[in-house]
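Notes continue from the previous slide.

Worked example: a multi-chain complex. Inputs as given:
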Amino acid sequence: MELRRAFDTTIDGLPVHGGTEVVPLLRAGLLQADTLVDIRGVVPREIGSGRIGAGATLAQLECDPGIPDVLREACRLAASPQLRNMGSLAGNLLQSTRCWYWRLNWPCRLHGGDECFARDGEHREHAIFANDFCASAHPSDVAAALLALDATLRTTTRELALADLYRVPTEDDRRTTTLEAGEVILEVTFDDCERSVYLKAMERKRWAFPLVGVAAIRREGETRVALAGVAPIPWLLEGDLDSASPLPRNAYKVDVARALVKRARATIGA
Amino acid sequence: MARLIRTEKEVEGRYEEVWLVVEEDSLDQWPAGPLEVVGRDAVRADGRERATGQAVYTADLAKPGMLHTAVLRSPHPRARVASIDLAPALAMPGVHAAIGPGDIEQLTADCSFQGEAVAAVCADTPAHARAALRAIACEFEVLEPLLDPDEAVRRGSLLGEPRERSRGDYERGLAEADVVVEAEFRTQVVLHNSMETHQAVVEWIGEGVEVHISTQYIWGIRDAVAERLGLPADKVRVVCHYMGGGFGSKNGPDDYTFIAAELARRTHRPVKCALTRREENIVAGNRNATIQRLTVGARSDGTLTALGGEFVNAVGWDGWSSGTEGPMQMLYACPNVKTTTYGAKLNLPPMKAFRAPGFVEGTFGLEALLDELAAKLDLDPLELRRRNHTDDAPEGNAYSGKNLLECYRRAEPHWERRHEVRARSTETVKRGVGMASQIWYGGGGPPSYAWIRVGSDGRATVVTAMQDIGTGTRTAMAQIAAEELGIPLEHVTVTLGDSDRGPYATLSAGSSTTPSVGPAVRAAAADAREQIEEIAEQRGLKGASVAEIVDVLEDAQILGKGARGPNPTGMQVLTFGVQVAEVAVDIETGEVWVDRIAAVHDVGRVINPLGASSQIEGGIIQGIGHTLSEERLHDPATGRLLTTTLDAYKLPTIADVPEIVSELIDEPDLHLTNLGAKGLGEPPIIPTAAAIANAIRDATGANVRQLPISREEMLRALREAEARQKEKVGAPAGV
């Protein structure tokens, strides 16, 4: 495999930034590439007011007092210090699910197959929303934070709401993002908010993906709550948790989410 | 004088009758308490090499021309290889040889668990080997696996006969009870996940074979390799200077050693066969799951009248049914005890010994049950344990030494903290304190030998072909020799880990290395010291230092030898202890924090307090993983494993580690060897899960019955406690 430094993102190859997601996927045989294109030199990484270069690392973000609490805490509670030193903001948004069936390359629906093995199998860490077709859970803490902030993304070809980056997979289209081949996220922007918070439940104190992550923000009297780890994509919570559709072994996640949402709302004075 | 005896030998709680040649242990024990070197903190002799990367582990070994191996393992729990073609692999670049089913006994076409080895290739690099492995055309016919332990018991798919153990009259004991508590406990499969994966480098040299291997038992590897390869044992050299963890999983040669040996034979090259992290998570062994259906009967004052249990060990395809019933049989004075233990043979990867196998699981069940009883009787859990304490072994043979009451006494200040801890509870975060007792083996036994040489520079080298699995025994041996010789610790070097360079020493399992090899080292040092004293007498230097006495020797050396003496006849050599855990439980989210664990253990004389506290901390941390986050999962329909990487299999991180307070009784066992020292490798992990579960009950009233105590289990137990509470409040008076 050849690693080339790219100044032209149209070079045919797989873009890699921090590598914390791409490398494990390559090693597991879930991604194939003859050429890796190092895009660290061309993706912005500056952190400004309401404007963050997509190449900023999570470690940069967790230390920056200028960014909203919800995003800073989501970064701080993600992964481990080593991974946060390498992992980029955009890379974190584009993470694949941790569903063990998917990671072990079972012929599941996300891999184009005709069965969700988790639904009838081992699904304690899986989705409680939008899970009839595929019960995978989206693992990004950062995505939930940016969804709560109603962030906008600028890519090499367009601008789009963060919410529009994601799509629930369907029979006809198994993808979980709308990113086109060769399209690279360059920048994330969002409006300021008065108060915000990120709360996370995981199976150990650090270095675990969210069982449930709750991002909540308060802006001009409005509250927005988004969840990580509860649906195949970052999930905007509309209404309460009663609309969840848990599987037999993950109903506990609804209780955890309910408690964390209540606390998050209380924290931001919603 | 050497003599031949027939004796019971215990390893990991399993006894066997063996003939042994033992030498008398004629040395008196040292007085109790810290001496000049022994009983005082010593930093690890090899700490610098390990920390600076100079220590060469098997994983670091790169012999000239060495080839690397990749192993094709069954992805299915039960399958038959319908067809296999190795030719495409042999045609791949860098490949030197490929072997398949039948080429050696360890490669099979009938796979009974996921990860069973089918074929292997060796190549110039690991990447070449892996690429070649993918080229092998292999078709599996998938068969229905047996996965449910209770179903296995019903069908009679068992490893060994069911084990019935009984004393007194259990039924009568139940009838005499004022209160009976029944509960079912379940424990999960957990993995050793040694930092250095299982591996060996094998090279044929002359008429023999040299095996570098990450192992807990170089002599066991030597004999197993010699037998399988049809070689005289002295033509097999086994080397392990440093190893990155074993925890019971590296007692045998496994498939990788024989795969490497066969490929090395065919290629005339040294061959390394190393498990990948994923293979380590599948076939490196495990602590098997258990189901424990337990009953306790007691009088209203807490006196136990009956203990009973049905234990199902979900052993997997191979291994043994460990002593999960041991704590119930051994820990308390109860006159009527009846247990039945089944070893379910399943299409799951074989268990291996894992740090106090059986007793970790059994202590969780028994000690959580005892606290459920204490709650029902409204008795203080520590007082309940004291009332059922015994200094007379209920199963017969007297204890060689037991200071459990002293452990309880030393635990009191930690236990007393519970009032203050509980008072810090809030509406949503409840705090509490729990405790659990520990019983286990750990006396070691013969044979083990050591040699020592003292040069004219007054420095000593201890030579013994034991291995240090990372517990710091190398340092402890140096301390013992320094103490006996009366020389500074820095003047002692320990040479170990090579079957060609030193006499036999025990396997490093069952908390046995220090109590087995330590007395031999002391005997060897005493032998040398006596010779030095004779020289001193001849030179008129009585009372002078060793360096002064041996100063004139030039190239002459003083050679000493020593052997481990017998264990005390007709006695049980056991270790004891107690741990007190402080936890906080978020009753809305099910999150559990372990804030503090105090451990008080009785393991006889302590050689190195610093190393001992490190062992206690390691055991407790591993115990916290077992209690809260670790679990190997398989797909319920197919039995295929789902947690094969370290993001899915959740070991504790440093953020999960609480304050740990370790205390040791440090009283020599007066009946045991010239040291009075027992082992400490295993005891600290034994009571941790139960202490945490009991602290959770103290904090919340919830009875957790399953490991790990995930959020799901915690919230279930809280809901159940809430329902129980409502029922109690709602019940008519007098019922």
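Summary box: The first strand of chain A starts at residue 2 and ends at 5. The interface with chain B takes residues 80, 98, 100-101, 103-104, 117, 120-122, 124, 201, 203-209, 211, 249-250, 252, 255-256, 259-260, 262 of chain A (CB under 8 Å).
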